[in-house]
Design brief:
The protein is mainly beta. The protein has one helix spanning 2-20; strands spanning 26-34, 37-45, 50-59, 62-76, 79-87, 90-103, 107-112, 118-124.
């Protein structure tokens, strides 16, 4: 029991310490299921707290849906938050909260607090181009 207590204590201390040093600004690419739909996304988080993200859904290697969102992001301790104010040019106002689970120079993992959905994203450069078609990943 002492081992698990120590492990839990280390996690409680390590995750906030990780987040305090976190720099989530930059360009991040991810893909995976969001609900029952497999999506690809490319987000850019600016150091001033603004963000923009493009979501793409494919069928048979063709884009069938594309959505653009924008708003504000923040990081407080290990809680990564987004406040979306625009979707496809229309004003909206909704907030999402995520638990930052891991962060390196090239990858971040985070979990949507309300739904429990896990996400992974890779840091990409300004020259990033969307990956080529992989039909095994495009089925929703």
């Amino acid at each position: 029991m002492q081992f698990f207590g120590l492990l839990l204590l280390l996690l409680v201390v390590a995750v906030p310490a990780l987040a305090q040093q976190a720099d989530l600004s930059g360009r991040w690419y991810g893909e995976g299921y969001q609900g029952r739909v497999y999506l690809h996304w490319l987000s850019e988080r600016r150091p001033d707290g603004g963000f923009a993200v493009e979501f793409r859904r494919y069928e048979e290697c063709q884009i069938v849906h594309r959505s653009l969102e924008a708003g504000r992001w923040s990081l407080h301790g290990s809680i990564y938050a987004t406040n979306t104010t625009m979707i496809d040019g229309q004003r909206v106002n909704y907030a999402d909260r995520y638990l930052l689970l891991g962060l390196s120079n090239n990858e971040m993992s985070y979990q949507h607090i309300a739904s429990g959905t896990l996400f992974r994203a890779q840091r990409v450069g300004a020259d990033f181009d969307w990956p080529g078609c992989d039909p095994s990943k495009l089925v929703s």
